[in-house]
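Comment thread on ticket #2218

A.B. wrote:
> Attaching the input chain for the structure job we discussed in standup.
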Amino acid sequence: MLDSLKVSIFIFSVALSIAILVPLTGVLVRYRANYNPKGLQLDPEGGAQPYTGPIIRSYFTMMGRVYRIEGIQGLYKGLMPTVFSTFVMASFVLVFLDAPKTTHHPYKAPDAGILGTLMYSILLMLMSLPTAILTYRAITTPYRLSYYNVVQSFRVLLTPTERRRPWTIYLTPGLLAAQVLHISIVVLGLGSLRRVLLPTIQASTVNVVIYVVLVALATMFLTPLEVIATRLAIQRNHASAEYNSVSQEIEGDTDNVPEYGNEEDVIGLRSEGDPYLGLIDCAKRIVDEEGWSTLYRAWWLTVLGGLVTMF
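C.D. wrote:
> Ran it. Output below, let me know if you need it in another format.
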């Protein structure tokens, strides 16, 4: 009876977390993925013209825009891959690690030391990467995907190359590098410092202040990595650079798939015909095309995430 109650509480807590986090994550992904170049764009004839896509200045402005154009259903885009990923990861932890408390933080591992935590975190990242990519793409697509028509959703979100060779998504230029670097900073950097400065809940005020400052400094590196990872995750892999999104439409991948905003898109996306070529190339192009501030979109959420590790 007690075990059944624990399972019920666990399921309820996970469901509540998903209900709260899916809309917040969806807004964050859109905000960081929105392409907002600061210069003139070239039309097909080579002439210069001003950028006409949406210009979003803040996280909460994006939240309002999503609700206005797509409604509540739009806020819950990416729900099904999130539920699936949560189920798979929770099952993995419960079955193989017998530690349900570890599911509450993606970098929280069993007590195996810093290197053990690093390996554990990278393993979880590799397991969850496909569903994370599907989630990000489901959030940013203008199409209204069915919750249950998985085949149609795959055709919209994945290119023919990715459907024929699913492992291609792991080869997305720069994505794994961004993820591993992010995990390394969190685990090796902040994790090590937290163990030294905050070994117990009764840590001194001085140590707490020092750790908060270090979290703020780490944000200078973590937030750009998160923005870059978002951009790279939604960048689909094609057989060649010339095999662009127009070629996808010829195949009929989006035929008869309704859109949310027929006259206005929530965000602007960078052309797939000119993809980012890696981690460094993505960072350089973001700075050149959109400015430094783009790399620090919603930086305060990264700070809050870092402060949560204090507890």
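A.B. wrote:
> Thanks. Noting for the ticket: The longest helix spans residues 2-33.
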